[in-house]
Sequence to fold (180 residues):
Amino acid sequence: MTLTRRVETMEATKEGSLQREIEAFLYLEAELLDDQRFQEWLALLTDDVQYVMPVRITREKAQGKGIIKNMSHFVETKYTLRKRIERLDSEYAWAEDPPSRTRHFVSNIRIAPDRPDAGEVSVKSNVLVYRSRGDDPTYDILSAERHDVLRRTPEGWRLASRTIYLDHSVVTTRNLAIFF
Fold:
């Protein structure tokens, strides 16, 4: 094996290892959300996390992708996410009583290590969230692409930023009290 081929193989192994680490992080995150272990999920976020879901509208091709940059379904920080979780744990979370049952299907995980010096990687993934409530036979299926920034810390990978681009321009679910 030539030296060039050995270097390429080492690089591919490093990339494969990074891919597996990021996948493991995203799968753990999905499990925590589906199991309603929200405090553990919150621990996976950096203190300066930004968690945003911009509004999508339908536009003609020439007018762009249809994402409104200055309007969102929510713009959250760690503080507001913590408050949402505290409310879910209280008797005042009427929109989530009984709690929703969710299943997060995470796929098409793509990594661009564009800030290796900062110990961060940009990650795109697709997510399909199935949601049911109580004994109601109806259910919601929400599809989105997530743009994340993950930061390596001494405790492991942490979510520093997430932008959720719903594929829906009309959100028919009763509320957006779940996490993506």
Confidence is low (pLDDT under 50) at residues 3-11. The domain at 3-166 is CATH 3.10.450.50 (Nuclear Transport Factor 2; Chain: A,).
